[in-house]
Amino acid sequence: MSRVPLCRVQRLGLPALLALTAVMLTACSGSGAKAGAPSSASSSPGPAASGQASTPGAATATVPTSSTAPAGGAAPSLATGYLGPPTTQPTQPTQPTQPTQPTQPTQPARPTPGIPTTSAVCSASGLALVGTGGQGAAGTLISTFGLRNTGTGTCVLSAFPGASLVDAQGQQIGAAARRQGAAGGQVRLAPGQAASFQLALAHAGCPSSAPVSHALRVYPPGDRGSLLVPYEQPVCTTPTVTAVVASG
Length: 248
Known about the structure:
Elements: H1 6-11, H2 14-29, E1 120-121, E2 127-137, E3 140-149, E4 155-158, E5 162-166, E6 172-173, E7 178-179, E8 186-189, E9 194-202, E10 215-219, E11 227-230, E12 240-241, E13 245-246
Parallel strand pairs: 1-4, 7-12
Antiparallel strand pairs: 2-3, 3-9, 4-8, 5-6, 5-10, 9-12, 9-13, 10-11
């Protein structure tokens, strides 16, 4: 068996070394065969036969020849690659909602002792107009009338009522009554109570042709509704009216 110089073996690559080993084993096994027996050995040319040599035991590593750097100038990682910066910001934890404080109930207002609670103004729909009598002096008739509370609650009257004389058709005769005297104060009327006022009408010297009234129309203070009470007198002058006062 021939020997191959060691320096030549070191130059061969792993495939060539394997092929050479096979040739040597074939030669060794054929040394005891009969003389003249043909021997054959085949080997595939390795990388050494094609002129390529490689160092035994050296691992081949593939190195990328080019790479695209991500935005921002950061170089890609050769081991794991570069996926770029995260595009989604981490979600901030939601703060717990504070419980709503219950609303305290509103306390009703209490009336102040000694101060009466304000009442509604008496209206014509809750009053009755009545005549309480009259007297004459120096050709002037002074008649007293009352406004009685017919409602179920307390109401108030103050100042002057409106008054005018009307005929049988309800048409006003002459001018409305003028106010006379002080305005007075507020009169509180409980159900069934009444306030009074006076109407003065001068008829001295009235001609026989003067119109005669059929009724007196009264407007309670602060109301546009009216009440009627029978009142027949010759009308040739303008009547006067006083403010309401509490009935005695």
